[in-house]
Amino acid sequence: MFDEITERNPFVWTSMIHGYVEILSIRKPFLSSGICVSEIIISSILKAFGRLKWSRDGEAVFGFIWKCGFGFDLIVLNSVIDCFMRCGEVDCARRLFDSMDEKNVVSWTSVICGYVRKGGMVEARNLLEAMPSKDMAAWNVMISGYTDVRTAKFLFQAMPICDTGTWNLMISGYCKVGELEKTKGYFEQMPRWNVVLWTMMMDGNVKSGKVHEARCLFNEMSEKNLITWSTVISGYAKNGKPSAALESFKNFRKQSLELDETFMLRVISACSQLAIVDLSQ
């Protein structure tokens, strides 16, 4: 539920942190209680430990896993790998992975993802090559790990099939380095477009000072959201076009979209830099 919340206020964060603290405070009584547990409960505990990067009680937890008979449970072992990786225990995760008689796509992807997080792209690539059945998640994790989009391109070209996430990664990568022609090429090759990609293309043009091109993309869009509108408004403001920014904001107010804090902060921040008083007010 927490992962699905887009606007996380202090209350939400406090509740989440409090929940994690409670998990840590009851871990020892729980582990020694003798209560009947399932692989789901064990996996949830490991997930919490991984997110908190809490590896101090690893031996107790893993001893408990074997005691409960989950030492060969694939779901639990995958959770252990993920926990190790998130805690920075890459070698432990790899040893466990190598010792497993049974592995599935989640096992492989967890280790690849762990290496990518730590910048171990060579190890991650070697694992991807050895992976018997490569899924989209593994491919996308690898592409996301390359800081040089030109290197990622070769992996992209080797993929048998791409999904929206793959296209997003490539377009985002070229936008970041300002290669808008390459970005446009990927954008036009896509089988279908969504509002995220349109907005990404707009943002890339805005950052390169090509406000007119960004506006043309905006006009072509059949669906627009708050991020889209804030991109075009702040884009005009940041590129010294206060009148166009104000006019776009007036057009936005005619829509049925509701303002939120993120939208207002982004627009006000952009406009205040140029002292666009009318729009900031």
TrEMBL record:
Q: Which Gene3D superfamilies does this one have? A: Tetratricopeptide repeat domain (1.25.40.10)
Task: Tell whether Repeat is among the UniProt keywords.
Answer: yes
Which keywords label this protein?
Repeat
**Molecular-function annotations in GO:** RNA binding
Instruction: Give the organism, scientific name.
Output: Capsicum annuum (Capsicum pepper)
One GO BP annotation here? RNA modification
Which InterPro entries does this UniProt record tie to the protein? PPR_At4g14850-like_plant, PPR_rpt, TPR-like_helical_dom_sf
Protein's UniProt name:
Pentatricopeptide repeat-containing protein
Q: Which residues cross the membrane?
A: none
Repeat positions for PPR: 73-107, 163-197, 225-259
